[in-house]
Amino acid sequence: MAVGITVEEEVIIKPLTDKREYRRIVLPNSLEVLLISDPETDKCAASMCVGVGHFSDPEGLEGLAHFLEHMLFFASEKYPVEDGYSKYISEHGGSQNAYTSSEHTNFYFDVNADSFEEALDRFAQFFIKPLMSADATMREIKAVDSENQKNLLSDAWRMSQLQQHLYAEGHPYHKFGIGNWDTLEVRPKQKGLDTRNELIKFYEEHYSSNIMCLVIYGKKNLDDLQSLVDQKFKEIQNTDKSCFHYPGHPCKAEHLQILVKAIPIRQGHKLKIIWPITPTIIHFKEAPCTYLGHLIGHEGEGSLFCILKTLGWATYLYAGGENWNNEFAFFKVTIDLTDAGNEHTEDIVGLLFKYIILLRQSGVNKWIFDELSAIYETAFHYQDKTPPIDYVVEVSSSMQLYPAKDWLVGSSLPSKFSSGIIQMILDELTPENVRIFWESKKFEGQTDMVEPWYGTGYSLENINSSAIQQWISAAPNQNLHLPAPNVFIPTDLSIKDFAEKVKFPVLLRKSSYSRLWYKPDTMFFIPKAYVQMNFNCPFTSHSPEAVVLTYLFTQLLMDYLNEYAYDAEVADLYYVISSTYTGFQVIVTGYNHKMRILVDKIFEQIQEFKVKPERFSVIKETALKAYQNFKFEQPYEQATYYCSLILTDALWPWTEQLEVLPHLEAPDLAKFSKVLLSKAFVECYAAGNIEPKEAEEMVIHIEGTFFKGLQPIARPLFPSEHLTNRIVKLESGISHFYPAEVLNPSDENSALVHYIQVHQDSTILNVKLQLFAFIAKQPVFHQLRSVEQLGYVTMLTQRNDCGIQGLQFIVQSTAKDPGEIHLRVQSFLEEFENKLYEMPADEFMSNVNALIEMKLEKHKNLREETSFYWGEIFYGTLKFDRRDNQIAALKNLRQQELIDFFNEYIKVGAPSKKTLSVQVYGGLHSAKYEASVKEISSQSQSVLIEDIFSFRRSQPLYGSLKGGSGRT
């Protein structure tokens, strides 16, 4: 043991199923560390949580803490090459990021196990001697500004800032925490401040080891990890700082009993009812907000949401606490309103208070707390293993808040019943203590104030408690009552013993009605299962109307089941019914003990489906708003959508779906649902803690329900009726362009998706493409984002369209228009060409080995494993041993083969290259749109796509990889 290190022997509570070893140590510089040894891990990870956030921003330098978070990634005295840290992590199979909250800044990374020590050394330099060059400082201010630009039209960001704005001005909760060009460059200069000097001063003042918490997740034993931590982190300075502490609540008397009417960007109406409450973080074992949130947010029979839904007033309700710190906290109820509900907001607030009165009259019930405690305890002890990078972030954040023995538990395990503490918080949910935020576009033209950072229009009025008492009295008399005991809580958590250790899914059963793929759990040993059933129905996508009606059908099913199945969700047994291109799918996942009960109920509901006109109207209204709100998606998301629309045969555009939706009525769905279900083939997958016989019985029951009996609902598909997704085959040597104007003219951001189509699924070509993307990913980010500052959203990703593989460069920017971004992408490829040619052989092999290490990485949990195998089934490739084959191909891959691949498919001007550039012009660049269209039209070897559907019809298609029911 290193001299001076304190080893804490206190037992850290961990899940029963957790085989990892833990040790808490404190370095001589007072850095608190949790070591986690996991000999089975493929990735190692670390997270440093620093006890300072944007609450500590100096006045007039809003966003400085967030900006500092950005700057620490660039370089250090020991590793002065800019971007060296990120490059090293990327080249060794890892990822890295950070975030800044109100009182904490968290830095984290993961990396292949054999590269952990050097990665950790580079990471430690963030907190020892970072370099913050003047050049990098100026460039990264633009990145922060671009990040803020991305959020300006986001209702989540806008409304959160509005709430903070309407608190005491002197309190740090009132602050703007992200920062922008104005706060980090313009205003400081006006005051004679140098932002870089302020940055260094902020770092020296706040980044002290005694307010840092470090989590190390490694493959080595605890003693080796301890030695490694001492060696790497002992030089962090301890300046004996205190964590930020600002006494008092931001909410004063003048901020209570207010009604704020705000104008959102998107269609839809929301009510947010907020109470400042006594901080509950010290009562995390008593969990008063968990108890109250469970009851007020319940969706079963007799609940507030059930009543609001029955009245046709609400489509969503959430209730729970927001624990900020030891000084202040909030309890919040959020309700999504229908148009009818928007006319009854006083009644809705009245009903909410009626339910709160019911809770007071009913008293605090120990049986409800005990039930919740049992659910949370089971969830803790049988939790899925998560990727190390996610785990270290979660735990390091907990270290700042909880005693050491509860670092892994946090607030997730209510265990100490105290009616007095729950009653204390309940007594604070009063009309005298309330703040109401009402969001609706109907307030346009009726507001008289503007929030300064995001420009949200709002008005504010005072409401006294007597007015709310009148709302309570006038609210409808409904049968509100507490929930019944939860019948879905699992009591059998035994692990099944599978005699045969199956490595890949097997085709367990096949008939003219269905196929059943099966994969028992031989890795995770958790009492959970995953069942997926895809109904392939040929009538689902023959027109825009059919697509919309299929969507409404699935949403109504979810709506009908909600009241019954909500208890299952509370008990960690989840279900989802959603529409697909070829029909609809049912997914049920969670504890296997009572899964069959829920599955049978779902299929009973499908079998007996009837359209309830009043619920149809609500679901239709919700769907209509969702379609209308597509135009408010980020420009890069719009560009990605256009790319899919151009490439995917028979994909109907959202504009046509939006056009037909208003004309569809309940009788249309009643008629269509019978047609939809009249022909079907069911593709099934069952995995986890489930016996083969159980899986077969489930499928046999479904076949009997739908296809057999005196009056079967469906008949099996003919071979000609199996639907497949097919993808446009772009012409070689041609650059295809689709320019468009952003759908929301107020959005100043422009975007480019530059797509390079390469090949249909092939092991050799797949690994070449993956290796190129692996090598180029970080250089793309560094050059286009960090050096050229094109925009915060900058990435290179692989794209898989039904087995057709390609690359896409995605950039969103206010700095450059899409045409200029396209040229910068081309320039990058030209410059990168030389780097590829000149790459040393050992660097090439290092990249190959890092990619192999990533492919050797085991699935962390059942959901991750299922996602991989279901992808093979869904696309029809059925290469369950894909990763083994790719590893073998990578081991034999030569450097010249990668260069040849680049020259044939990726290089600028390559004769076999197939590209599609989707260019979305934002408000700042709208004047350049017309000129861009003319310029593209005049270029040789370029095709301007003016009409997507004419283009799509004129192009050849790749053959489908999905062979229908016959392929095994």
Can you describe what's shown?
With 968 residues, the chain is an alpha+beta fold. It is built from 31 helices and 29 strands. The strands form five sheets. A seven-stranded mixed β-sheet has the order 1-2-3-9-4-7-6, sandwiched between helices. It has a seven-stranded mixed β-sheet with strand order 12-13-11-14-10-16-15. Strands 17, 18, 19, 20, 21, 22 and 23 form a seven-stranded mixed β-sheet that branches. α2 packs antiparallel against α24. The longest helix has 27 residues, at 544-570. The protein is globular, with a radius of gyration of 29 Å. It starts with 5 loop residues before the first strand and ends in a 14-residue tail after the last helix.
Can you give keywords for this protein?
968 residues, alpha+beta, 7-stranded mixed sheet, 31 helices, globular
